[in-house]
Amino acid sequence: MRVLAAMSGGVDSAVAAARAHDAGHDVTGVHLALARNPQTYRTGARGCCTLEDSRDARRAADVIGIPFYVWDMADQFHANVVDDFVAEYAAGRTPNPCLRCNEKIKFEAVLDRAVALGFDAVVTGHHARLDGEGRLRRSVDEGKDQSYVLAVLTQGQLDRAVFPLGDSTKAQVREEAAARGLAVADKPDSHDICFIADGDTKGFLQRQLGDAPGDIVDGRTGERLGSHNGAYGYTIGQRKGLDLRVPAADGRPRYVLSITPVTNTVTVGPREDLEVGVVTASKVIWHGTSTPVECEVQLRAHGEVYPATVTVEGDTLTARLASPARGVAAGQAIVAYQRSDEGDVVLGSATITASAPLLAAHA
């Protein structure tokens, strides 16, 4: 099989490419240049959009013995990931840029170009598995599992994807990289958002959107408790950095309950007011299982899972949770899993649009 290996410059993608080569595939490595100006993105080992990463990927391809190219996808990345990130926050939602990058860049733009060039599939270093029926499953290393951010892929995209690392732990991948003589064996994992150079998300959004002063109000009484310079600087469930001028009568901390862009208002309240039992979502990707279905849902990357009853009607997914979840934010993904002895299977995903209190789940 002729495959294109997406090589980020990290240890996972290097070992994935090497395994594909060992399996007898005709492998070509490609590094995605995603930054319009790489110097404005992260440097060192903290991101996936650096000049160092490009060089590391090339060196890994040389060791493996495969052809290597760099594809400039900076404009597509900026339009589909960076601009989307800013627009979602401006609309009061909390996006996941890694999920959007997988959807729009690695498994849409890259896969489409690869197929047009005659490749059969795209190989990546994601920690996830595809079973014999082409179903997406969690990695055996649940701490590194990335099925959540891959659940936006269609079945057609999954059919042209290869994830060689799903049956290995991260420690095993690093050991193998060292044994292969790959210099990235001990390279730290990337963290945070790759296109925010200093890791200051609030500062980045402020530079993009400007100051937009508004009120912080109590969710139960409507009392004005303080002010903010931009509602985009807050996320559901946030506790720190609220700078409230009026303390709670009971002395307990307050959390962000909701963000309303129309009135530019941030609403706060006690922790128990974050509890939700019904989650509604749109942009559904569903893999054929009839609903309603008893399953488990994950509401954020590396977050808890909750038993739920999921129903899909048209482009709307509704999850009725068996126990309350907190900090559920519109814009994040909800991913449904079916637990099995062979590993959790992804049933589908959707983008969260709204949530309701636990009582509504049993109405």
TrEMBL record:
GO terms for molecular function: tRNA-uridine 2-sulfurtransferase activity. The record marks 126, 332 as: Interaction with tRNA. ATP binds at residues 6-13, 32, 125. Its EC number is 2.8.1.13. This is tRNA-specific 2-thiouridylase MnmA. It holds the Pfam family tRNA_Me_trans_C. The active site is at residues 101, 194. The keyword Transferase applies. It comes from Paractinoplanes hotanensis. Signal peptide: none annotated. Keywords: ATP-binding, Cytoplasm, Disulfide bond, Nucleotide-binding, RNA-binding, Transferase, tRNA processing, tRNA-binding. Catalyzes the 2-thiolation of uridine at the wobble position (U34) of tRNA, leading to the formation of s(2)U34. Residues 144-146 are annotated as: Interaction with tRNA. Residues 202-269 form the tRNA-specific 2-thiouridylase MnmA-like central domain. Residues 280-352 form the tRNA-specific 2-thiouridylase MnmA-like C-terminal domain. It is an enzyme of class 2 (transferase). InterPro entries: MnmA-like (IPR004506), MnmA-like_C (IPR046885), MnmA-like_central (IPR046884), MnmA-like_central_sf (IPR023382), Rossmann-like_a/b/a_fold (IPR014729). Belongs to the MnmA/TRMU family. It is found in: Cytoplasm. The lineage of its organism: Bacteria, Bacillati, Actinomycetota, Actinomycetes, Micromonosporales. It comes from the Bacteria. It catalyses: S-sulfanyl-L-cysteinyl-[protein] + uridine(34) in tRNA + AH2 + ATP = 2-thiouridine(34) in tRNA + L-cysteinyl-[protein] + A + AMP + diphosphate + H(+).
